[in-house]
Amino acid sequence: MAKVNESIVELRGGMFKTRVLTSGKGKPVVFLHGAGGLFWDPFLDALATDHKVIAPEHPGAGTSQGLEHVEDIWDLVLYYAELFDALKLHAPTVIGHSFGGMVGAEIAATNPERVGKLVLIAPIGLWRDDHPVPDISGMPFENLVGLLFAEPVSPLASLVPAPDPNDPEALFTAAMTLASILQFIWPLPDKGLKKRLYRVKAPTLLVWGDKDRLVSPAYGEDFQAAIAGSRLEVIKDAGHLPHLEQFDRTQSVITEFLNEK
Amino acid sequence: MKSIFFHLMPYRDLPDDFEERYESVWVTPPNRELCDPKKVAQYYKWNLDELELADRLGFDGIGVNEHHQNAYGFMASPNIMAAALARRTDNKSALLVLGNTLALYSPAIRVAEEFAMLDCLSDGRLAAGFPVGTSMDVNRCYGITPTETRPRFYEAHDLIMKAWTQPGPFAYNGRFNKLRYVNPWPLPLQQPHPPIWLAGGGSVETYEMAMAYDYTYSFLSFFGYKYAKKVMDGFWETAERLGSDGNPYQAGFAQQICVSETDEQAEKDYLEHVSYFFNKCLHIPPYYFETPGYRTRRSTEFAIKTNQPADIAAALVVKKDWKALVDDGFIIAGSPSTVADRLIEACKGLRVGNLIALMQIGSMPHGLTEKNLTLFAEEVIPKIKHLWSDEGWKHRWWPQGARQDDPAAPAKA
Hints:
The complex is a heterodimer.
Chain A: E1 5-11, E2 16-23, E3 27-32, H1 42-47, E4 51-56, H2 73-86, E5 93-97, H3 99-110, E6 118-121, H4 141-148, H5 155-159, H6 168-185, E7 204-209, H7 218-226, E8 231-235, H8 242-245, H9 247-259
Parallel strand pairs in A: 3-4, 3-5, 5-6, 6-7, 7-8
Antiparallel strand pairs in A: 1-2, 2-4
Helix pairs in contact in A: 2-3
Chain B: E1 2-6, H1 18-21, H2 31-34, H3 37-57, E2 61-64, H4 78-86, E3 94-97, H5 109-121, E4 126-131, H6 135-141, H7 149-165, E5 170-173, E6 178-182, E7 196-200, H8 204-213, E8 216-219, H9 224-241, E9 251-259, H10 263-281, H11 286-289, H12 297-305, H13 308-317, H14 322-327, E10 331-334, H15 336-350, E11 354-358, H16 366-384
Parallel strand pairs in B: 1-2, 1-11, 2-3, 3-4, 4-7, 7-8, 8-9, 9-10, 9-11
Antiparallel strand pairs in B: 5-6
Helix pairs in contact in B: 3-16, 4-5, 8-9, 9-15, 15-16
């Protein structure tokens, strides 16, 4: 495993304290995590072999602070512009998963010049009545695991840590991380991204698991139709975490896209 | 001590296998499958009849509340019920509307208007309840972002109190309420405004708010007085820290109560209906109770420190046979003298001067509810009403237009 550096980046005189994981050398790639939180996983590790991976934690998730200063998605986009400035990132590649994909798309739509390339892995942010995105906070944990994976009974799925009902501190941290995401997607993950997506100028790759039961691959077609020149790669036998469940295939699709001139 | 008959207005005919077949009594119980408007029309008549009976029988107050998409309480608008009651309660009981869930109203000036209407309609008998509201109602049924629950509550409170105390029109520039002209008609009859009653489930912020603004605090749970001890101790500790004089009328708590001729008869009369309540009406999955972000970091830390989540979990799994229900204090039940003794013990122990009496429980039919209310009013209230008299407290939070039985008056011989 690559050596991972963890640092705390402060913004606006300490209003925000953001945990950032960094590893590798090469062109900068920003990874924006989903509702489960920020973890250094095999996908990021592989990415760090020929890129400089910068993975910030969203405000309020984990130990990162400042959620009370971002009221809505606009505040969050502004916050990320400032974080990019603080990290001296001009137009990095942005890879976002799920909620992180929604944020990446919002950044690329609002400030097209700040994103070099865009990779969205099963992003949320759009709404279809025929494929409603389930309420991830409104179901038992085991149901959620069933929605995350193509194969819910698998070594990978068993790695998702079940919350320990006897450990209120751990439950609290998990709840606050989820709260920091829900703040921007409640009650439905549609905050108007649809009408802004046309502004994305970055070359865009959309990656979807064909068995994603959380965010249907049907959304992939909507994203593709809205972002000019974007490409949709549907990964066979993968759920909502194709970059982990079909690691090799997803890795090669994304690496190929990143290496394109 | 004030006795307030509080009606939840439950659906009294849920199917026998409800809790096996359905996910939850709240938020998602399918309305077309389970809720028959013809039955509801009958229930509403019974509910109002029961509240009006309590007024005639001499309860100090009658109470209604607000829930949404909830089979144990389908009173989506308590103000509609309170308006009906205001016209048909000549014995001048207080009208406790506990309350309007402030965070749900946009603009929140609507609450200032409707409460003022109720206060005028009832000749100043309104106690204005400002609950934060449950996560089920606020976040899931009405779609309020969990982390905005408290900010919206505080802002609505601020707007309403300004509307009631500052001359209009004025501009209000809040985060959620932006109004150029705040100038509600009418204003409340009670001056400067109706007494404010807060309701909570153990959040430290709510304790502090009660003290900061001199409001009452009521702990509304269905687990009874033994479970309430820790929460009310927490309230009084906070109150003392903030300089409270310890007036018991500043505190209330909800208790399920079943009165019959004898202790044995109480079990025969009520067990079925109480079981219905605990098995079906509290059939709520844990993931609905607290949407992440609903509780603040501070209150969650406080809850963990005082072991609240474990207590709730433990209370929910207690086997609910009659003996357990009575011994653990979930219900206070029995003959009038048993009930009175238990209530005195409970209210003294919790130091509360407002008993929010839940007396139509679950599937309890109309006739039995009338019996429960009548026995309570005739044989229990006389034994408990002077509980705090010897300490000489004044109830500063009782509506000005409501019947003012002097709490300091000596008990009748």
